[in-house]
Structure formats: structure tokens, C-alpha cells
Write a structure and sequence with these properties.
The complex is a heterodimer of chains A (171) and B (202). Chain A has 171 residues and is mainly alpha-helical. Chain A folds into four domains: 3-51, no CATH class; 59-88, no CATH class; 92-136, no CATH class; 139-171, no CATH class. Chain A has helices at residues 3-13, 19-29, 33-51, 63-78, 92-127, 130-137, and strands spanning 141-143, 153-158, 163-168. In chain A, strands 1-2-3 form a three-stranded antiparallel beta sheet, with no helix packed on it. The longest helix of chain A has 36 residues, at 92-127. The chains are: A mainly alpha (171), B mainly alpha (202). At the A-B interface, helix 1, helix 3 and helix 4 of A face helix 2, helix 3, helix 7, helix 8 and helix 10 of B.
Chain lengths: 171, 202
Amino acid sequence: MNEALAIRIQAYLDGELSREASEQLLADLDSNVEGRELLAALQAENALLSSVSEKEYPLPVVHGYFWKGIAEGIARETGSQGLSHHRPAVEPWKRWLSWLLPAAGAACVALVGIQQGWINGASGKMSGDGDRSKLRRAPSFHEVDSRQQNAGFISFRSESEGVSVVWISND
Amino acid sequence: MSENQSYEHFDESEVVTAAQAGDSLAFEELVRRHGDKIFRRALSMLRDEDTALDMAQMAWIKAWKRLKQFQGDSSFATWMTRVTINVCLDHIRKMKRWKFAESIEDLDENSGGVERKLPVVETNPTEGLEREELREKIDQALGQLSEGHRAVIVMHTFEEMAYKEIADAMDCSIGTVMSRLFYARRNLASILQRMLNEGETS
């Protein structure tokens, strides 16, 4: 068998020959029995290999173990830029944005609240009901402990403000 | 839901883009999705489970470092498989275990000539074999090839790489690829024929 012819036959089957070269090969094979046999053999082999898929070989270790080796290898090869479970570092402007937006939102809420207070106050004055309005907004103190005869102090607890106030008497 | 599953339902392109931006969770998701295939490719070329595992991990490490070079011209799996093949070929080169039959004379000396390697084609020797049994026999036959012959068969037959691509990967000429592929196929056919004949007589 001529090696060059054998390799041309293979290239023809693999679709690596130009149209002209393919036509030339087929013409050459007309008078070459051995070449035609090789063509048939290679075709049979190709059909055989393409008729079955490759045998499956699953990863023989659990993913966690496999990944650990990769992560360690990356850390080794990239030095301080080792791989860990984190998102990539964000751009500085994005970092500013990440707290600026919530802060801006909180400021808006605060402004609305203050504005609401002014409106309530102004409406109270306008309606001539300012005292009632102040009473509504005043802390609701109430006594939680009574005067002790010998202790000399008075304490108050404001539930709405969450504070307790104690007066100590010098008597 | 653990944090590792955060990319589980994402499209491949989204996961790749996130990994390219340096998101290690996205990269781990890619390893999770393609780990089996990459290991299988390494094993098909090297035929040693421990070495294949090491080379598969090495391929993923190289992929992380070169991830930005992936432009999406092919699927990520195809690109990753090419990385793996290159890692395996490098390993084979380092181990200096190339055993190619570079010429027809070598083949004649080693194996009794190309004519005797041609399988009998008058009848189909695989007729009657169950698909799974046939797959097993082909796998065994591939295992008996030299690493160089197996590599070229894997790249051409299973990865459908063109001669030029194989030549680039193996750092040789297209002519050398054609020659290696031819003798690799002849060897494979011969081994398979012998195995099937042995199966008939036993």
C-alpha cells in the first residue's frame, strides 16, 4: 500500500480534501482494488466509532473535594489573589454608591417626617388649636412609683419615650 | 439554599460572564456543571484515574487564569475541553512517553504491516453486540493504544477537531497529524478486531 494514497483516502473521508483533490482520488481508486478496500475499511471503522457514544466516567471524588484542590491550586499560582468564596471587589464609585443610596433614602424619610411635623404644627397654629396639638405631641408621663416615706425620691416612667426620670429629695 | 447554589439556575453565558469578572462562585458553578466531562476527557487521554484527576484540576486552574481569553466563539464546554487537551498533551510531553509509529516502516516493524491491520470488512464484526458491550470494547481498545495515538483519535473522533487544530495542539505539521491519525486508526481497528475475535472463540 502506498502510504501517500492511504493518507489521501483518510483525508477524503475526513472531509479535508478539496473538491478537485477528492475527484482525483476517486478517479485513482477506480483502478486500485487495494485502495477501495482501505476506503471501505475506514468507512466501516468511522461508522462503528460514531455509532456509540464514549463510555461515561463520572468524577471519582465528590465535588467539594475536587473544588478544594482547584481553589488551593489557584491560590498557589496566583499568590495573594487566592480564590475564596467572595464576590469580586467592586469599583470605588460602586462602593460609595452602596451606602450613599440607602443614606439618601433615610434622609428623604427623615425630611418627610420633619416636614410633616412642621405641617402639623403650622396647621395647629392656623386652626388656633395649638395647645391641643402640643398636648397630643407631648410625652405621656405617668407615675410608676409613688413617693416613699423615708426614701426621699420621686420617679416617673415615660412609656412613649422609653425613659424613666428619678428626682431625689434632699429632705 | 447554600451560597454555592446561587448560580445554579443561571444561563451558561451569565455564569461565564460573572466568572470572567472574578466571581469565584460562578467559576465553581462552571466546575460543577462540566467537571465530569473534563475529567472524562483527561481520563480518555491519560488512562490513569489519579493523573487524570490531577490534570483535570490543573486544567481548571489554567482556565481560571485564562478565562478572559474566552470570547464565546465556541461553547464554554468546547473551550474548556481544548484547555484540558492542551494540559494533557503538555503532561504527556513532560513524561516523554510519546511512542508514535511515524512511518509505515515503523508500523511494519512493530506490528506486522498495515495490510494485516486492516479489519475484515466482508461481515460486520460488531453485529449482534449490544451497544453497551460495544462501547466497552471500544473503550478497552482505546486503552491499549499508545498515548500519542489515543490523543489524536480522541481529538479527531470525539472532539471533531480539524487536522489544523490538532496540529496546533500537538505542535506539529498537518502531515504529521494525518500520518499519526492513520496509524492510530489502523491500530485501533486491529486491536478491536482481535478483541472481537477472542470474544467469539471464548
